[in-house]
Amino acid sequence: MLEKHTEVLEAVAIRFAGDSGDGMQLTGTQFTETTALAGNDLATFPDYPAEIRAPAGTIGGVSGFQLHLSSKDVFTPGDEPDVLVAMNPAALKVNLPDLKPGGILILNTEQFSDKNLERAGYKSNPLEDGSLAAYRVYPVDITGLTLKAIADVGLNQRAAVRCKNFFALGLAYWMFNRPLEHSIAWIEQTMAKKDALAAQANLKALKAGHAYGETAEIFTHSYVIPEAKIAPGKYKNITGNEGVALGLLAAMQLSGLDMFLGTYPITPATDILHHLSKYKHLGVKTFQAEDEIAGICSAIGAAYAGGLAVTTTSGPGLALKSEAMNLALMLELPLVIVNVQRGGPSTGLPTKTEQSDLMQALYGRNGESPIPVIAARSPGDCFDAAIEAVRIAIRSMTPVLLLTDGYLANGSEPWRIPKLDELPRIPVHFHTEPNGFQPYGRDDRLARPWAIPGTPGLEHRIGGLEKANLTGAVSYDGGNHELMCKLRAEKIRRIADIIPPTEVHGALDGDVLVVGWGGTYGAIRAGVDKLLGDGHRVAHVHLRHLNPLPADLGAVLHRFKKVLVPELNLGQLSHLLRDRYLIDAVSYNKVQGKPFKESEIARAVLAELERL
Amino acid sequence: MLEKHTEVLEAVAIRFAGDSGDGMQLTGTQFTETTALAGNDLATFPDYPAEIRAPAGTIGGVSGFQLHLSSKDVFTPGDEPDVLVAMNPAALKVNLPDLKPGGILILNTEQFSDKNLERAGYKSNPLEDGSLAAYRVYPVDITGLTLKAIADVGLNQRAAVRCKNFFALGLAYWMFNRPLEHSIAWIEQTMAKKDALAAQANLKALKAGHAYGETAEIFTHSYVIPEAKIAPGKYKNITGNEGVALGLLAAMQLSGLDMFLGTYPITPATDILHHLSKYKHLGVKTFQAEDEIAGICSAIGAAYAGGLAVTTTSGPGLALKSEAMNLALMLELPLVIVNVQRGGPSTGLPTKTEQSDLMQALYGRNGESPIPVIAARSPGDCFDAAIEAVRIAIRSMTPVLLLTDGYLANGSEPWRIPKLDELPRIPVHFHTEPNGFQPYGRDDRLARPWAIPGTPGLEHRIGGLEKANLTGAVSYDGGNHELMCKLRAEKIRRIADIIPPTEVHGALDGDVLVVGWGGTYGAIRAGVDKLLGDGHRVAHVHLRHLNPLPADLGAVLHRFKKVLVPELNLGQLSHLLRDRYLIDAVSYNKVQGKPFKESEIARAVLAELERL
Amino acid sequence: MTASVYPTVPATDPSLLSKKDFQTEVDPRWCPGCGDYSILAQVQRILPELGIPKEQIVFISGIGCSSRFPYYMNTYGMHSIHGRAPAIASGVKTLRPGLSVWVVTGDGDALAIGGNHFIHALRRNMDLKILMFNNRIYGLTKGQYSPTSEQGKKTKSSPAGAPDYPFNPISVALSAEATFVARAADIDAKGLPAVLERAARHKGSAYIEIYQNCPIFNDGAHDYLTDRKTKAEHELRLEHGKPLRFGANGEKGIALDTRMQPVVVDVATYGEDRLLVHDEQNDSLAYFLSRLVHPAFPTPVGVFRCVERPSYEQLVEDQLTAARERKVASVQDALEAGETWTVA
Amino acid sequence: MTASVYPTVPATDPSLLSKKDFQTEVDPRWCPGCGDYSILAQVQRILPELGIPKEQIVFISGIGCSSRFPYYMNTYGMHSIHGRAPAIASGVKTLRPGLSVWVVTGDGDALAIGGNHFIHALRRNMDLKILMFNNRIYGLTKGQYSPTSEQGKKTKSSPAGAPDYPFNPISVALSAEATFVARAADIDAKGLPAVLERAARHKGSAYIEIYQNCPIFNDGAHDYLTDRKTKAEHELRLEHGKPLRFGANGEKGIALDTRMQPVVVDVATYGEDRLLVHDEQNDSLAYFLSRLVHPAFPTPVGVFRCVERPSYEQLVEDQLTAARERKVASVQDALEAGETWTVA
Ligand SMILES: Cc1ncc(C[n+]2csc(CCOP(=O)(O)OP(=O)(O)O)c2C)c(N)n1
Ligand SMILES: Cc1ncc(C[n+]2csc(CCOP(=O)(O)OP(=O)(O)O)c2C)c(N)n1
Ligand code: SF4
Ligand code: SF4
Ligand SMILES: [Mg+2]
Ligand SMILES: [Mg+2]
User: Fold this and answer.
1) CATH code at position D122
2) Touching D: which chains, 3+ CB pairs < 8 A?
């Protein structure tokens, strides 16, 4: 038997890719969970096909899952995978360009038939034509070996072939010295409940894959990634959509309010509805409305009635909600609007990520319409951002826009589960005193009282027409209108009072400051860290608050020679910074439905450094 | 008999004010037309009550009409009227603060009963308590004199009382030495058709009013405003809404296209629909849709089918149209969206003017969504702006947003009627050649071909998903998406090629440049002219094109020490200029549902001059 | 778990309420003679009789003359945006099923821009009382034809006559599965409060089409039905279980002809027992009645349909109760659910 | 006046068209077994028979699996935005009445977000052919309940069952005054092309509800009606002027009971002459038929209603013609109309 070596690596990125029917997302998730249990820091990137159901074996149908695991901090799923498992030619075709030169390539040879090669657009067989010479190629008949391993279970052919992803998983476990226990337990507990036979077969496939790595002559090396230093606590993986849902749940508890979600399904936001609809036992009411307008309007009704009111959507849906957002603003009711950004304009690239709704969030309504805007930076951070959105909405009696994006929404990362009783409560005060009640009176945050139906003596009428200061009666007075426009603006401005000082990562002053927002956090942080490691005087500021901006931001910006703003759009935050601070911010754009790579950020910053 | 003097004035501003039922708008219009025929330059400002029907005699029900006439160029209806005709106490209460110190006050004494005084919120009778000492007060029992004059016509009391506005008109005609002919002809031709008896009575009232001025002892002076130097031609008064309607009609003729308007009524835009629905004999099709979304969507359908497609709305309606505007952008079809701005946010001040939809126009859509935005500066200019919007839409195959506002829409001014055959044609080319047809191929303006249903061999499919360059097929390719986003942006940027060099009125460089857009034109021009007359180094630039901005604008701005941006909002254009040109533009705001006064502008500029 | 953040003030005593408790200090701003005044008066008249504490009543409207209604009701109220009142009211009701939630809307507000929310609220059987003031015109925007204006109507926006064929609002409400559907005229001092009260007591969505006169832009649209002189000939008062009779002395009736089409018959010669009998629970019959349209037929007023079906918010409450019984778990449990691991 | 800017290319000869002329090079992207495939095939089959030049046909859709339809039709087409296809199509048709305009939509697209445009297009009698693929689910967004899903349906967004009561789409279309209303199933190779062809030839709005199977998210929803084994028991084929009979040998029929409610009767014992007779022009009967719902009753398929009424775009054309006859004036005249004065 061949001697096998074990090599220690600091980090590795692995991508599983196959047809949409091949179960790559499940494979990726299993690998992720096992990796997390093994104590690595990690980040993942699931990549679904845009088409509903593209024909099997075609480029359009390729589904991928990338996982970056490390013994150090991990910020992104990794630019270029070190290992690519491709279950068919189309998966190879789509993903090979990303593979690191010299990377490991595990290919399911059974799928490399002439027909499949043609479907994937190959003129010749890459297994034979030498085009893969730059990689370490491991051709494995994954399908055949799986079928052999599970022959005695008695599944029909179609079901049997489906087990091949667990063979691949087993093989990957062997390669990275991961224990099988977690996946075995999952198969035996979760999968077995639905289909005992399939569970049995997958178990065998998993073990067979592992054994194949152990015994097959072609594999000479396996790898070990030591544990990372991770803050103690209880962890689980969450996607950004789960993070938002759980954050809202937590805010419900922290505020004591009843939750109401009014929404209409739209990719990639729908999962928030799916998640929240599961918490009926906690009192969450979800309302699947007839359209996005009814979604937000029902939430406005719930806010008026005293609920923790939420509506969720994505770009085109946000456009439809704009008129009603202004009603919420005029009514001065708390409301959280979650917008999961996707590729635009119009229907655009609905399954891809982008950061191009910032301007819409800030300005997309008639009249002077100041609404707080905040953004989440990672799947786990969606939890915190959702709580922050609720907190602002209630303290200032205002609609709040929370921006996430498709990358955060579907991506996942290990998340340290907080103890709710350690989080600050969200104070809520319902007005009950009829004496001197002024529907549009204000406290020192300029918030008006929340006086809900059912409270005796506070009967009052509100609406979308301009309101008289204090009384809230309809007023057509010009002076009052200007006063109210300014009060509404000032109310939002005062939210800056609770924004913590801007956190500058890296040099406190110096050459290039990289300013980002939202889901680009990981790539920017990793890119800047690399340059910091190389001794450059650069820094990174990542904005949670886009409106109002932090009070100290201008001062921070002016401490650097150059401000670089990488965005997955054509320069929206940079417009804002230029306007507000009159600095010649340089915009670095990518609008390809994909996140930044660390290397792209590093290269862009270097270019600016050179230009100084 | 008292001797009467005639004084020559350069200019005068007169305001008629009364209850909504008092016919002040008609009085104002008649005075305007007579004045125009007399050869004065003029500007008007009708001011309707915001309430549908406020109770008679109350502040809420006051309706006013102001007219500024001059022997020189007139840019605004005048800051402060020289003459106020107030038909009841409420009208006095509302309008007195605006009257010029020492101004003339004609009051209908019959209405100053205790009940009416109370309704208007007067504690004592201003006719008696000395509070009007600072004005030249002419108390006239207008109602009583009217009733006396028309007693023999035999109208019932209610109808008879209604004639009092024509008495007031006659009196005003006497005071400003205007001939009665025009109004007499109007009564005899137009009014008599509907109600012969009423016409007869109004004729008498008009003449009685005139005679009263001539004979009553209280009037000692009448005034003459000499003719202005006005470009030769045929004139009529048009409101901004008429201007838009006629401009679109002209564009229909100039392009040869069939016109389709898809819209939903909303104040203050509805009159465009009313106007256009009258031109069925010219082939105009108007579609009163079920809502604003259907309004724009039907127009998109018409554009696809090869029409001159238009949709009209106001702020909240524009918000509702945002999703569909992006569809038009993605389809790259020509479409004109007219937004008549009103007081916002939400329902806001629906009958009042404001300029606060600029940000919404520029940015209020999901994704990267570049749409050309242009603005009209005066009622008559609405005509030119509408043609310009159509021209841009067709040349660049793009939706175009035309911004007007409530002030322009309802205000009117004398307008020189152009000869259509002297205006440049709007070239239209429908693609017909199947060979090599690329639905998303582009010409040198980056416009794609307009290939309409009915054309054999060009059958093709378009939609809101991202399109592949050239073919227009659905494409999920990241690189293609970025390319298309940039192509769409560049297409709009290239429109700057046809924007004429920025016209700088006043100093070509110097101290303060005042930059405005839209309906503030008149006030800014008058204010700046005043300062220029006083020898200040100031200038005025008024932007028609807000997106793209004129290519030379940056250079112009940088020639001045300070840039002041007066706007009827909280600083929207100034955000844009700061962002684009990194100049510390100073925003001068007013958000009171009312236009700027010339004096406000002059004062604001002076303040900047002093600060230099 | 700490104390509820929600106010625990006791409800006021509804038996003390009278009409004037529902009037506000604001003077209504409708034109003189507008039918909205009489509707307001009737609503203010019946509310004290319902036994509902005033603070538990909410009026939500859209935009239009009719939609100014909440300003004149001394209850909780919202004058929202055009067409969206049913959606807003749905949120109020779903969150707080205990409130009595009313929607006031116009023919434009409910059937033009708001048509979709209107039919969806009805199909869900959301327990809302929807009062639609049908003046067959857009009043607030000063007189354009509405989705209930007759075809060919000349208005500011249709100088050559409206090319649109109108909706029959009762038909639309029925097809939207509304469980309570009725009609009354603004100045019908008997019929209007009667249907208002039945609607209020109905558990589920209740829709009332109120024929309303707009003296300014569409004067007299419903005169044939409200004018004392012509009323008897044109009004068909629906009564559950009673044959369909009308005329000054009930001398005329409605029957089916052999083609299953309605005919007006003389009761004496035709026989009362051959007349159609009203049945509020038969939805096809209700639809049939909605197709009786002036001038060929008398106009039915009263209750077209009234059936029981669980209301939306009740079903939601039931689901929550069932879920709570099935699963006892805290928010903390929810956070910790799923695959977790612990780093020490 | 210069020559028209519009192309003057002669129309192609429709008699040369065959099914494959309507196929595009793009492969349909629906799941294997999706009912959309068979609908596509039937539409491509009947179009060549209509005598319409291919370039004069336009397909407009919204968003949904169903709404990808235009990509696979080699005609003019637009895949627009969610719910708005009827409004877009209305603009196309009003501007160019000569075009044959088709709308393809889903139960979510037409009845959730697009409900309002749908009913307004129908009431206007806009000459559109509206094909609604009813799979009773949101397919594209991966399986949430739709406005036609049954109450209590468990989906991703309703794990405890949908609290919504569904629309009956035929009832809704009828109440929206649609002049042509029909139903067919995706794989009914006889019934579907028959109603498609009648719809195409109808002058005015034509609505067809097509029962469509979504094997991924709502498999078998219509099996009772499409499965050879159960079909005869559950399908009621409507034929104008014919009594309502069903069953393998037509042995069962539909009649009215004494409460004007439908009953299923045995034809032999009850008597064929006492059965209800279908009449496409009786709108109350059509509504009554729409209330025959599985499993209590057989499901009617075929044409529920077909009546003549001037179409919207025709009325508009007529108005333009009349206006042109009444008034000859140029755009220049319009500019110069009203009170003018001349400065020399
Ligand atoms: C989004 C939006 N679109 C249009 C309008 C303008 N608008 C206000 S009320 C109205 C129609 C009112 O008609 P109806 O509902 O019948 O009420 P009525 O005034 O007749 O009582 C319209 C078109 C608006 N306020 N908001
Ligand atoms: C404005 C907007 N809201 C929501 C969506 C998401 N969306 C796309 S299709 C769809 C429903 C599709 O259901 P249906 O019309 O029944 O079509 P099917 O996929 O079942 O054929 C939804 C909610 C969208 N594309 N746009
Ligand atoms: S316009 Fe008509 S509906 Fe509106 S308040 Fe006046 S009378 Fe009433
Ligand atoms: S999800 Fe359903 S409706 Fe959509 S393509 Fe697949 S089978 Fe057809
Ligand atoms: Mg109305
Ligand atoms: Mg569906």
Assistant:
1) 3.40.50.970
2) A, B, C
